[in-house]
Design a protein that fits this description.
Blueprint: E1 7-11, H1 15-31, H2 37-62, E2 68-76, E3 79-87, H3 90-97, E4 103-109, E5 112-119, E6 122-131, H4 133-143, H5 152-161, E7 164-165, H6 169-174
Antiparallel strand pairs: 1-4, 2-3, 2-6, 4-5, 5-6, 6-7
Helix pairs in contact: 1-2
């Protein structure tokens, strides 16, 4: 079976690998060989902060036009927990998802939009999909009906499998192919 290619949107799990060469080149251009390890790391952190800010702005704009579902699992000291949330405000949902996390990886695989983030107790793994108009109605009818006996997991599965579509971030924002596979 072919494996979909991860199209990285943002990743700070290995800042040295991502930015060290560019940071050293920039420092050499500015100061020649007169720089320290701290200078390199400060430059790396600056590059990372700029990239993160740019990507969050793109994500905020991309997810501003609809209702979305974020679902997945959270690594906790007492095991993994699953769940979902429906949102219109990307920034709030994103900040809740990455709360207490030091490392973040955001990526697209053939239209699927994923967020992985790690903290002291484990790793959180999420996917985001866009709800269809029918999905918004389905969720609202369930959420506002206090006598509805359908379980949360039943509603989550219906929203994910029937009432949502892939966001296709990498395709729409970066012009990537609709599908790409690793060789």
């Amino acid at each position: 079976m072919k494996k979909g290619k991860e199209r990285i949107i943002y990743d700070n799990y290995d800042l040295w690998e991502t930015y060290s060469e560019s940071a050293i080149d920039a420092l050499v251009d500015m100061w020649g060989d007169e720089y320290t390890d701290d200078d390199v790391w400060n430059m790396i952190y600056d590059f990372d902060a700029d990239d993160y800010s740019d990507e969050i702005d793109r994500l905020r704009e991309f997810f501003s036009d609809g209702t979305y579902i974020i679902f997945g699992s959270v690594g906790r000291w007492d095991g993994r927990r699953t769940g979902f949330d429906v949102f219109n405000d990307f920034e709030s949902a994103y900040n809740d998802a990455i709360k207490d996390c030091d490392f973040i990886k955001i990526y697209d695989v053939n239209g699927h939009f994923y967020i992985e983030c790690s903290h002291h107790d484990g790793t959180n793994c999420y996917e985001i999909k866009k709800l269809t108009d029918a999905g918004v109605r389905y969720y609202t009818n369930w959420d506002e009906n206090w006598i509805d006996k359908r379980s949360i997991s039943y509603i989550q599965n219906k929203l994910i499998n029937r009432y949502s579509v892939l966001p296709r971030f990498a395709e729409k924002v970066y012009g990537c192919n609709r599908t790409e596979y690793v060789a």
